[in-house]
Amino acid sequence: MSLAIDQEIVAKFDVPGPRYTSYPTAPVWSTDVNAAVYAEKLAAFGRTRGKTLSLYIHIPFCRSLCAYCGCSVVIRKKDERFADEYIEYLFKEMDLVHLALGGRPRVRQLHWGGGTPTFLNEAQIERLYKGTLKYFDVDPAGEVAIEIDPRTIDRSKVQKLRALGFNRVSIGVQDFNEEVQKEVNRRQPYSVVKELNDWCREPGFASVNFDLIYGLPRQTPESFSATVEQVVALRPDRVALYSFAYVPWLKRHQRKIDASLLPSGEAKLDIFLRARERFLESGYKAIAMDHFALADDELAKAFEAGTLYRNFMGYTVKPADEYIGVGVTSIGFLENTYVQNAKALPAYYAALDAGRLAVERGKVLTDDDRARQWTIHSLMCRFRIDKRDFQKEFHADFDRYFQDEQAHIRRCVQDGLLRVQNGSLEVCDAGKLFIRNICMGFDHYLKQKDALTRFSRTV
Fold first, then answer.
1. Is 165 left (phi over 0), alpha (psi -120 to 50) or beta?
2. 244-272: pLDDT as tens digits
3. Which CATH number do you get for residue 408?
4. Shortest CA distance to 100 belongs to which of 31, 44, 18?
5. Can you tell me whether residue 170 is helix, strand or coil?
6. How far, in Å, are 81, 271, 281, 284, 315 from residue 277 at the CA level?
7. Total domain count, the chain
8. In this structure, are 100 and 193 located in the same domain?
9. 318 vs 352, more confident
10. Is the Cβ–Cβ distance between 286 and 273 less than 8 Å?
11. Both 414 and 321 in a single domain?
């Protein structure tokens, strides 16, 4: 990708906008989707044959709060009782889900996220993993992944994860620069990550992923380039290069960040482009918006095959049609319905103590939602829209269906973001940088008043 980035381009496209880990996005979900609706959707899924399932388990606990964090976390220095209690409630929820499904479904993808899943000690990890198997038939040949904070793990715990059946790990790196780490309250030396990477290679995990964040306070193109060099030297199979979502109006702890220390929009794009170029030089393939993978990794193969998928965990292969979320604030999607659990532990516990699923809100997709979801997903994951595929999927002519969006499409073409080619819309190199801006033109809900006020900026 060769693209000159200047202040004029940044000013034109640097606007608030969704990341499209879902469509419709979470701000438009409502409490109309409750425990009863979720139970009906689970039962409907349980009656079907041939559908495959992913399972996400949320562990909310962290020992300290990172200033950049946008996740739902609960800070606990270290007290095993909190985790033991939480695991009991996870099993209560799994039991209710199991009853609604009417069986023990096959799970093609299992992911533990957080928070910090490795906050749990070895005994708790084993208890939760084996307890999950009572309710879900986890495919040992599928993707079994866990997120790791390098500060909460040792060699023995790594070996325990592999022995239980985890085959993929995602390591939170963010940035190796000490000044940046200090600003975001995330101090972990390069040596700690290198040691963890070595430990993960010993038992033969199928894939080791590094998570990085660009746009943090005190980051510069030069300082982050040094981090990228260190990452390249460790040779992870995948790299997720996330843009920092600065939303202090939503995440109060981000107010501790001195906004004057954040890189400008122009500098932030430069950081990304330099990192991208270095990863490509080092044998990685660029995967959609912000991921990189070695050529023989499944993520790279899925991107080439057009089977890449995007959800609340970012880009992933699509081993399953639908997914269930378990734990506080977890999100699931099945039977064309998004479901999110209560965000606070007391509310989550109270619902389960009352014998009901801990659903707080969700969204049942309309036919129009599904058409727009398909379109935005195609852009985010494949950088193209095949109008013939849209016709087959929805029995409608793409241009007629999106008649009101034709002006947006023309503007994207004029701006060099899109090109029309052989019955399809193809994303240009510039459009790959501003893919969120392209998708926003197909988002029906952004037409509502103040719809953009909750989102981070696209640059």
1. left
2. 988 888 888 898 899 999 999 889 989 99
3. 1.10.10.920
4. 44
5. strand
6. 47, 10, 6, 10, 20
7. 2
8. yes
9. 352
10. no
11. no
Torsion of CA 144, 90, 99, 344, to 10 degrees: -120
Contact of 46 with 322, CB cutoff 8 Å? no
> What is the distance between the alpha carbons of residues 135 and 453, in angstroms, rounded to a whole number?
40
Q: Does 195 map to a domain?
A: yes
CB 76 within 8 A of CB 63: yes
Per-residue pLDDT, averaged over 103-114, amounts to 92
- Give the span between the Cα atoms of 357 and 95, in whole angstroms: 10
What does the block give as tokens for 156?
């023995």
Cβ proximity of 323 and 54 under 8 Å: yes
Distance CA 10, CA 268 (A): 10
Q: Is the dihedral of CA 56, 61, 63, 64 positive or negative?
A: positive
Residue 172, token pair as written in the block: 């939170």
Q: Residue 31's domain spans which residues? A: 27-326
Is residue 216 classed as helix, strand or coil in its secondary structure?
Answer: coil
For residue 241, the SS3 value is: strand
Please give the sequence-ordered ranges of beta strands (E in DSSP) within 379-432, or none if there are none.
384-386, 418-421, 424-427
> What would the two tokens of residue 324 be?
């269930």
Amino acid at 150: P
Question: Which tokens go with 36?
Answer: 């009863």
User: To which H or E segment does residue 346 belong?
Assistant: helix 345-353
The amino acid sitting at 147 is E
What is the predicted pLDDT for the residue at 125?
A: 98
**Per the structure block, which two tokens stand in for 312?**
């609340």
Cα separation of 2 and 436, whole Å? Answer: 19
What is residue 445's DSSP assignment? G
